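thought: fold this chain, then report.
action: predict
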Amino acid sequence: MTIQLIFLARLRERFGVAREAFVLPVQVATVADLLAELRARGGAFAEELAPQRAFRVAVNQDVVAVDHPVKAGDEVAIFPPVTGG
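observation:
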């Protein structure tokens, strides 16, 4: 069971990748679980996805809260907040 992860803006630069196929471990059921798995990679992932950092998550192009479910086939984008002008 895989999802597509998409990293945008500064996260793409910091992680060195724009997108990746991610195999969902059994324990990953929500966005919060997914973020914990990514933080466990350490380095830039732990720094940029730390709870005090500002970023948003969209599942299938809808911005969601961390309790939103994640399932096989989803597209999950993680990106910094954007401002308009």
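thought: worth noting. The longest helix spans residues 31-39.
final: tokens above.
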